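Hey Z.,

So I finally got round to the aspartic acid thing we talked about over coffee. Here's the setup:
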Amino acid sequence: MFKRTSVVAIGTLGGTITMTSNQGAAGVSSTLGAEDLAQSIPGLANLNIKLTLKTLANLASGSIRFETLFNALRWAKQQVEDGADGVVLVQGTDTLEESAFLMHLYWPYPQPLVLTGAMRSPSEAGADGPANLLAAIETAASPAMQNYGALVVMGDEVHQARYVKKLHTTSVGAFASLIIGPVAYLQENQLIVYRLPSPNRFVFDIPDQFTAQTLLIETTLDESVALYQAIPDLGYQGLVIAGYGSGHVSEKVRDVLTPIVAKMPVIMASRTGAGSTTKAVYGYKGGEIDLQAMGIMMAGGLCPRKTRLLLNALLWSGATRLEIQQRVKQFGEG
Ligand code: ASP
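And the result:
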C-alpha cells in the first residue's frame, strides 16, 4: 500500500546534544546545528520522513530566554501552517521540562510538538542524542501522537509536558513523569500508546508583551523572612512558593505573606517533587486551610516550576485574580 512521506521540521536551540569541544577550550559548548544532527542519525534514510531543518540558536538551555522560546514557537507554528506533520525542537535538558510546558501552553495544533535533547554530548561513548532525535522524529510524524500538545521524548519514552521532570544530573534515564509514567513508548520504530490525550486542552494566544516577572522560592527549615519581606518592592507581579509537604510554610513565613498577597497572586506548590497539594487537611498556622483563607491559591499537582510558567502566561494574558485562580485549579487538577 502506498504510504505518504511524512514531513517533520526540526529546529535546534543548542544543548549537550549539539555540544563539542570548541577550539581547545575546556569542556564542551554548543557548536552543532540542525543539519549536523540530522546527519548523525543512523537509520533515518529507511524511514519515509522528509525533514526541514533550522538552526535557531546555539545556547546552553539555562540561558534560553522567553523571547527565544516565543521565536521558536512562531517558527514551529509556521512549519505546521506550511504542511509539517509534526515539529521537533532540540534543546538542552537542564530546562527542557520548562520549555516543553511553556510551549504546551501555546501550541494550538493537533500535530505533535516534540522536544528532545541528550544527556551525553556527541563526543562521549554511548552518546544518546542520535537515538533521542530519531525517536523524537518518529513521534512527531506519528498520527497516534496527535492532540497531546507538547511532548518530551528521551530514551524511547514519550512524556507529556505537564508531568515530565529531569530527575538526575547525568543519567541517560534522567527524565520521568512521576506517578503517571510516560504516555507512549517507542519500540522497533512503532509507538506503543498507553494513554489517550486529555480532551479540552486550554491554549493561550502568544502574548504581545511578556515583561511581567514572577518569582519562585522554596521554603526551607527555619529560614529568615527577610527575602519574603522584600518581595513586594522587588518588581515581581506574582509569587510561587515551593512549600513543605502538601503546601505549607512556617508560622513566621505565613505571618509575612499578607502584604505580598495584597499586591500580587501567590500560589502554593509543593517542594516534594510528586503528588498534589491538599485543600482541607491541616488547620495549623501556615497549613493549607489557613493559607487559602489568606487568599493564597494551591497549585494542585502542578510542580512549582511549571506553576510559575502558568502564572507568567496568565499574567501576560492580562488574567484577573479570579481567572488565575480558576486556571490554576484546572491545570493543577488536570
Ligand atoms: N546539561 C545540559 C544538556 O543536557 C546543557 C543544557 O541544558 O544546555 O543539554
